[in-house]
Design brief:
Blueprint: E1 5-8, H1 14-21, H2 39-46, H3 55-66, E2 73-77, E3 80-89, H4 94-98, E4 112-119, H5 129-143, E5 148-151, H6 171-176, E6 180-183, E7 190-195
Parallel strand pairs: 4-5
Antiparallel strand pairs: 1-2, 2-3, 3-4, 5-7, 6-7
Length: about 200
C-alpha cells in the first residue's frame, strides 16, 4: 500500500474524518470519543433510539476538532482518507484517570501521551497500515513535546481476534514498534510504553 500522507486531524479535515467513520461512526457509533467522555454521556449516546444513536458522540468529536484540539491522525491514499489513530496527551482522555484497568500508574508523571484507538475500514486491514499509523503517532507525540507514549493493547498471544476487540492495537504490534509491554499492577492488562525523550 502506498500512503500519500498521514496528517493531523485539523479543523479543515473534519469532512474527511466524518467520511472515514461513516454512518456508524467507526465502531458502534463511538466516533472515537469513548475514552474522552464520561461513561454516562457515552452510554446515553449509543443506547438512544436509532435515529439519534451516536449523534452526541459525533458532535463531541466535531467540537474538539473544530476547536483546534487535534484528536488524532488521518491516513490518506490517493487523497482519500483510509485510516485513523487517536493520539493525544493522556489527560485528554478522562476514562484513563477513572478506569481501574488502565488508570495512570503515576498520575503526576509529566508529558505522557496516549494512543487509545485505531480505525481501519475492513478492506484496509492486514496490510501494514496500522503500523504506519503507529509510527506516525510516535513521531507526532514526540514533536508535540511528549516524553512518554503509552497504549493499552490487547494480547492476542500471536493469534487473531475480531477487529472490534483489538481497536486499541495488539501487544505484538506495539512490541514491533519498540514499546515495552508489562501488566498493569492493578488489573494485569497490558500497558505499552515508549520513551520519546531521555533528557
Amino acid at each position: 500500500m502506498t500512503i500519500v500522507s498521514i496528517e493531523p486531524a485539523t479543523p479543515d479535515r473534519w469532512e474527511d474524518l466524518e467520511r472515514l467513520f461513516g454512518r456508524t461512526g467507526a465502531y458502534g457509533h463511538c466516533w472515537c470519543v469513548y475514552f474522552r467522555r464520561r461513561a454516562k454521556d457515552f452510554t446515553a449516546s449509543v443506547s438512544c433510539p436509532p435515529a439519534e444513536r451516536g449523534r452526541s458522540n459525533r458532535e463531541e468529536l466535531r467540537r474538539l476538532t473544530a476547536g483546534g484540539s487535534i484528536p488524532g491522525l488521518l491516513a490518506y491514499e490517493d487523497a482519500e482518507p483510509c485510516g485513523w489513530v487517536s493520539v493525544a496527551p493522556r489527560q485528554d482522555f478522562i476514562r484513563l484517570a477513572r478506569s481501574r484497568s488502565v488508570r495512570p500508574i503515576d498520575p503526576n508523571e509529566p508529558d505522557v501521551w496516549s494512543v487509545v484507538c485505531f480505525w481501519l475500514p475492513p478492506r484496509r486491514r492486514r496490510r501494514g497500515l496500522g503500523l504506519q499509523l503507529l509510527d506516525a503517532a510516535i513521531e507526532y507525540a514526540r514533536a508535540s513535546g511528549g516524553r512518554i507514549l503509552e497504549a493499552y493493547p490487547v494480547d492476542t498471544a500471536g493469534g487473531r481476534a475480531p477487529s472490534a476487540e483489538v481497536y486499541t492495537g495488539t501487544v505484538h504490534m506495539f512490541q514491533k514498534a519498540g514499546f515495552t509491554c508489562s501488566p498493569h499492577p492493578s488489573s494485569g492488562r497490558p500497558i505499552a510504553r515508549l520513551a520519546l525523550k531521555t533528557d
